[in-house]
Every structure is written in structure tokens, then in C-alpha cells.
Amino acid sequence: MNNSIYKKGLAVVLIIALIVMATLGIKLSVKENKIMYTSSPDMTNNDTNLDNAEEELSCIYVDIDGAVNNPGVYEFTEGDRVIDAIDKAGGLKDTAYTKNINKARKLVDGEKIYIFDEGEYTLQDLYNDGNEGKININTATKDNLMSLPGIGEVYAQRIIDYRNGKLFSSIEEIKEVQGIGDKIFEKIKDSITINN
Q1: Residue 95 has pLDDT above 50, yes or no
Q2: Cα–Cα 20 to 30 A to 137, which of 59, 106, 155, 177?
Q3: 57: CB partners within 8 A, 6+ apart
Q4: Is 165 within 8 Å of 138 (Cβ atoms)?
Q5: pLDDT at residue 119 is higher than 80
Q6: Higher model confidence: residue 125 or residue 116?
Q7: 168: exposed, middle or buried (C-beta count within 10 Å: 0-12, 13-18, 19+)?
Q8: Mean of pLDDT values over 135-161
Q9: How far is CA 146 from the centre of its chain?
Q10: 113/107 Cα distance (integer angstroms)
Q11: Distances (CA, A) of 50 to 36, 38, 145, 193
Q12: Is the distance from CB of 102 to CB of 81 less than 8 angstroms?
């Protein structure tokens, strides 16, 4: 009789042990699956994000000339600024005149930046970049823009704000500036340029 109770007790203990082991095994298996599940997508997303970031950054080429130590055409990443071009060209010469240069402006593919030497320029050069009296809307000062017919202080500031984000690629693009429509454009189109 004692032997029968012992066998039954042993069977119960074995069953309990099997249940405990099975439960622990299932819990460990679920934790492993969770770890694998959460880490795998994160790694995939990081790889995808890196690929997208590389695709978004494209190369542009800018010609920098004048009072820099190493003038030439250099490769940049989209979003680089004029100061980056100056640095890549070996920095400014001691005689460089930079009051007309916006060093914080973003570079545009294919543009030419010319840094004047002290005494090399005239006011016409600074404001119009030598374009036969036409005002370069990508580089002109606020006062110079205000000399255009129909362009007052507010419109001049809007033009500057627009080009600080993105240079004009055509004179017609000035119509995208708030308040400047066909009527004003007709008055100023023969007096403006985007060419350096």
C-alpha cells in the first residue's frame, strides 16, 4: 500500500515537474521570439533610412573664382553653403572684398561665385554683377531692389527672403514671390537678371 502511494506521489511530482518545465520552456521561447521580432525590423528600418538619406543627398558643382587661394570648380553636397565653397577653395585672400557676399546662402548646381579683390569692383559690379545695368535678383541688396519700378521695401524683403531659401532659376520665377504678379513683372522684366 505504501508502495502504491509512493508511486502515485512520484507520478504527481513528475507531472508537476513536466508542467513547470513546459511552462518555462514556452515562456523562454516567447521571449526569444519577441527579441528577434523587435530587433529585426529596427535593423531593417535603419538600413532603409541610411539608403534614403544617401539618395536624398546629391552632388552639385560650383565654380568659385576671384580672391580665393585655389579658384576652381568643386563638388559639393546639396545644402552646402557659400562659406563651404570658400573653405574648399583654400579660403579668402587678404585682399578679398566680401561685403556683397552672403556666406550663409545655399549653393546651387552650376553657379559661379566671384569674390572681388579690394578696389577691383565698382558699385555697378556689386549690385548688378556686370549685367549691363540690370539688377541681379539673386545678389542685389534691398536698396538696389527697391530701385525697380513697383518694388518697395516690403516686396524687396520678400524677394530676399525667397532667394535665401532658393535662388531664382529664371527671372519669371520672381512671380512666385507673394504680391509680385504679371503686372509688376511686366514693369521690371527688362531691368532684372539672374546671370552672374
Answers
A1: yes
A2: 59
A3: 77, 78, 79
A4: no
A5: no
A6: 116
A7: buried
A8: 89
A9: 30
A10: 9
A11: 21, 19, 42, 40
A12: no
